[in-house]
Amino acid sequence: MSAYATAYAEPDARAQQPAGLPRLLAGARAGGAMTLERHEAVHGSLPAMHRRRGRAAEELIAEIERAGLRGRGGGGFPTATKMRAVAGARGRPIVLVNAGEGEPASRKDRTLTQTLPHLVLDGGELAARALGAKELIVAICESAHASVESMALALAERPRGVPRTRLMSVPARYVASQETALVSLANGGPALPTFTPPRPFERGVAGQPTLIANAETLAHMALVARHGADWFRSVGTAANPGSALVTLSGPVAQPGVYEIALGASLSSLLDAAGGLTARMRGVLVGGYGGGWIGPQQLAGAHLAEELLAPYGATLGAGVVVVLSEHACPVAEVARLARWLAAQSARQCGPCVHGLDAIAASLDHLAGSGARAGAPRRIEELAGLVQGRGACAHPDGASRMVRSALSAFAAEFADHLRYGACEDCLRASELPLASR
After folding, report:
1. Which of 68, 318, 323, 330 sits 20 to 30 Å CA-CA off 242?
2. Is 411 in the same domain as 369?
3. Mean pLDDT for all residues in the chain
4. Is pLDDT at 9 greater than 50 in this prediction?
5. Would you say residue 7 lies in a domain?
6. Does 161 score more than 70 pLDDT?
7. What CATH number is given to the structural domain containing 382?
8. Is residue 227 located within the same domain as residue 251?
9. Is the pLDDT score of 169 beyond 70?
10. What is the domain extent for residue 391?
11. Sign of the CA dihedral 276, 282, 284, 285?
12. What is the radius of gyration, based on Cα positions, of the chain?
C-alpha cells in the first residue's frame, strides 16, 4: 500500500497515491488556514443531528463504533467506548480537544490546527452536541503560535451558540498534554498528570464527565459523520481501519506530515517522501515512547498497530524518525533517555529514580565507563518502571529503550567491548530541545 503526502511535503512523482486518499488533508495548502467557505466547499456543511440528546449520542457513537475509529493521540483507545463512558456518566459533559502535541518529533496536530481548523472544530462540535456538552475546550501548545491564530480566526468565522468554545494554552513539556494533566490545567492547576481514579470521563474539567480526544481523532469523526462507517473502513486494515497522519523526519528528500492508509508499508512512506538522502541505521516508529526497528527488519515493516507489534513497536501518535548511517544509535538512545528522564513530572518513583537510573546506565555505555552486563542491567531497570507511574511516561520510555537494545544489539555489544565510537560525538539527529 502507498502513502500520500500533504501539500507540506508533495509526494514524489514515482509514488502511487492509494484510492480514497487524501481524506483529512483534502484541499490542504501550505501557507495558510482553510477558510470556512473553502472548508465547506471541500467537505460539505456540518451534518444535522437528532434533537434528543440521548438518541443523538447513540446514533453518532454507533456509527463511530462501526467505523472502528481509534484514538490518534498515542493510546489507540476505541473512540466509541470512550464516548459511551462519558454519555453514561452523571453530570453535564465537557469536550476537550487535545492538540497539545508534547511529542517533539510530531507536527500532525499543528498541521491540522494551523491549516484545517474547521475540520477539528467540526469533530469537537459534533461530539459536544451528541453528548449535550456545555463547553468545548481546544488545548494547543503555547509555542504553536500559528495554530492558536488559525483556531482563533476559525472560531470567529463560525456561528456562535452551544457549545461555548474556548482555547487553552498548554506548556511545551512532554507530559503536559497527558489527559489528566490537561484536566488539572483546565481546572486552574499545573499541567501535571494525576493519579486515577477518578478518570476524566467520570470527573474531569469542573468536576464534570469529560471527553478528551486528540485533534486528529475528532477530525476523523467529522468525516465519518459525513460519509459513514463503510467509507471510513474502505482503507486501512480490518483491525485498524481508516487513514492516519504521520510525521516523517530524518534523511529523506521531503520530510513532513503525510496521510497514509493504515497498514501502508514503511517503504512506501519513504518513497512518497522522495526516498532517502543517506543510508539508514534504523527507524524509530511511534515517537519517543515507541520502538526502534533495525535495518534487518525494515523491509517487512507496515504501519498499523497489529503489524508493528512483532517488532515491539507501536504507531502511537504517528511519528517516524529515520536515523542515518552517520548516527550512533547507542549515543542517540542515551541522549533520548536522558531527555525523557528530565521531562518527568517528578511525582512518581519510577520516573524520578527509575528513568534517571536507566539514563545513567546508558550514559556510561555511550561513554567509556560501562561494565560487563550493562545491557542486562538496563533491561532489568526498564522492566521495573513499567506500569507503576501516574501516567504512561515510564512505560513509553522503557519500551523505547528495550526496543533499542534489541534493534541495535551489535552496536551495544561493540560499545560494551570497545567504548565510545567516533560517531558518539556527532550532534543528535533526534529533535530534543524544548519548543
Report:
1. 323
2. yes
3. 90
4. no
5. no
6. yes
7. 1.20.1440.230
8. no
9. yes
10. 329-425
11. positive
12. 21
Show the cell assigned to 151.
483556531
Which cell numbers hold the place of 303? 504501519
pTM above 0.90, yes or no: yes
Note whether 191 and 162 are within 8 A (CB): no
How confident is the model over 235-288, as pLDDT tens digits? 999 999 999 999 999 999 999 999 999 999 999 999 999 999 999 999 999 999
Kindly indicate the confidence band of residue 52, based on its pLDDT and cuts at 50, 70 and 90: low
Q: How many domains does the chain have?
A: 3
- Region 366-373: mean pLDDT is 73
d(CA 422, CA 408): 17
Q: Are residues 310 and 212 in the same domain?
A: no
Site of grid cell 481508516: 242
Q: Which of 273, 289, 324 is at the close of a domain?
A: 324
